[in-house]
Amino acid sequence: MSVPAVQSDERTAELAVMERMLAASRGCFSFSLAVCNSPALRDWIIARVKLAFPKIHLVSVPPGTIDVYTCVIGQPNGPVPCDGIFIVGLEHSVPNDETRARHTIRSLNASRDLWQRRYACPVVFWLPEYAIPLLARDGPDFWRYLSHHFEFVSERSGVAAGIQDRGTGDFPLVAGLPLDQKHFRIAELQQRVREADELIAKDPDHSGQLARHCVRWLDELGALFYALADYQHAEDTFRKGLVIAEKLGDAEQSTAQFYNDLGNVYLDRAEFDKAREHYARGLKIYEKALGPEHAYAATIVNNLGSVLQAVGDLPGARQAYERALKIDEKAFGPEHPHVGIRLNNLGSVLRALGDLPGARQASERALKIDEKAFGPEHPNVATDVNNLGGVFKELGDLPGARQAFERALKIDERAFGPEHPNVAVEVNNLGSVLKALGDLPGAKQAYERALMIDEKAFGPDHPNVATIVNNLGSVLKALGDLPGAIQAFERALGIFKKFLGDEHPKTQGVQGNLDGVKKLLPETHQPPE
How many other β-carbons are positioned within 10 Å of the β-carbon of residue 118? Predict the structure, then answer.
């Protein structure tokens, strides 16, 4: 079988990664995307993979298929059990025409959860690269479900490159992966980067495309470290990606994104000057390359607002959020989900400024946008409802807050399952309103559930865990369990000191809680210093 010319080293490296994924995922469901423009090359690759995994089940989707899931499950000699399912022929149902492709992509998006319920094996969709931006835009839930992305193309076209750069650093489900899957993905990406480093060292003059892949892998790897609050490894990884992106010379968007990623690390570490500096550098690149009103710039303007809010410059933060909102309204229209994100952030600073009616208005507008775009049961809607619950709580409407938090919780449990970090956020918030309502046992139960979820997702020593442990300590104090409260506050304090340092506001807040509860103990029960 003749094969179109593709850089052999890169193809070999991607094949090795695909085979490692198949070996590691035996008996486990996953979604993957294999990008290949040539049917002949695709068939050659699949033949190679089947030598090592003969039980790969190949499904060729007939032209004009809209419901791919029904097509696959209706195949004779069904694909269970097997080493994996490879779905080919999708280029006929997802043509390079967004109007004609939209129906199939939206069907894929709607069927996302059905695949996991049916199959306990990897499912790999083979598509040409022109389909990447169509899939990312019209199938956002399906897109975010992808755990692996394999590329068997010699050069990236401009239309696909834009989506790749937009996606760089945007891994919204990274935090939701179970802890063991995070570590598995880290190990896989580290292996990819090592192999790429070796290949680039052998032939640095002809490794530009491989270097671009490496940039993408480093950004995802850094995002995983960031999700684990391993800030030093995250910083080192993003810094390495930045160096490669700058050397490429034509990867301005990736360069800007790495500055944004580093800003996120510094913001979480309360290194506010560094965060602001890196956000500003990323923004300058975007503004020079794309103009000050481009949607990509809005993300960093928004993040600059987060720095300003963190240092107490609430008017400056409001101004930044309003600028980001204005950019996205102009770029996408007033009812786009991106606008909903900006409204939620604006609502947060309005709450901090004490403008609760304004915060409520912003949250309600965001909710209306997302309900129209996604329907009433989408995770984006859960975020809006959760934020609105926070406004209700501050307005003193505790029953309204409880209702909002319970609705958000129900949506995310349905979307992600009962042990996802998003669920922990809502359970934690529900605990806060139960405490305010005087239901201390209910609040304790909620915090303990949230703690169990985040310990499983992030491990026992993560800032998210510390936040919940601190909340649990406050309930234990209210219940009169002062030794238990001290133990909780001491644990939270140790985690925050480890990750954020002694001077971080969160560290100092927990220190104050600990000092306060110690004063309530009789002198004979004072713990030793």
Answer: 15
Answer yes or no: are the C-beta atoms of 339 and 316 closer than 8 Å: no
What is d(CA 358, CA 347) in angstroms, rounded to the nearest whole number?
7
Task: Determine contact, residues 246/240, Cβ cutoff 8 Å.
Answer: no
Cα separation, 198 vs 440, whole angstroms: 58
| Domain boundaries defined on the chain | 293-370
Task: Provide the CB-side half-sphere exposure for 46 (13 A, CA).
Answer: 24
Beta carbons within 10 angstroms of residue 303's beta carbon: 23
Query: What are the structure tokens assigned to 131, written together?
Result: 């389909």
The answer for residues whose C-beta is within 8 angstroms of residue 154's C-beta and 6 or more apart is: 4, 5, 6, 7, 209
Q: Which two tokens stand for residue 134?
A: 């169509």
* Fold of the domain built from segment(s) 293-370: 1.25.40
The residue whose two tokens read 């409001």 is 318
Lookup: tokens for 119: 């199959």
Confidence of residue 318 (pLDDT cuts 50, 70, 90): very high
CA distance 489 to 308: 28
CB 473 within 8 A of CB 488: yes
From the list 278, 177, 276, the residue with the least C-alpha distance to 226 is: 177
**Pick from 166, 98, 84: nearest CA to 135:** 98
What are 493's two structure tokens?
Answer: 């304090």
Question: H or E segment at 387?
Answer: helix 379-394
Question: How far apart, in whole angstroms, are the C-alpha atoms of residue 229 and residue 171?
Answer: 15
Whether pLDDT at 382 is above 50:
yes
pTM assigned to the model: 0.68
Q: What are phi and psi of 229, to 5 degrees?
A: 60, 25
- pLDDT tier for residue 281 given thresholds of 50, 70 and 90: very high
Q: Which two tokens stand for residue 499?
A: 């990750």
CA distance 331 to 322: 14
CB-based contacts of 205, cutoff 8 Å, min separation 6: none
Over residues 240-261, the pLDDT tens digits come to: 999 999 988 766 888 999 999 9
CA distances (Å), origin 420, targets 176, 393, 427, 493: 6, 24, 11, 24
CA distance 476 to 492: 14
Contact between 66 and 93 (Cβ < 8 Å) = yes
Pairing mode, strands 122-127 and 30-35: parallel
Q: Which two tokens stand for residue 475?
A: 């309930």
pLDDT digit string, tens, across residues 485-511: 999 999 999 999 988 889 888 899 999
Closest C-alpha to 86, from 152, 182, 166: 152
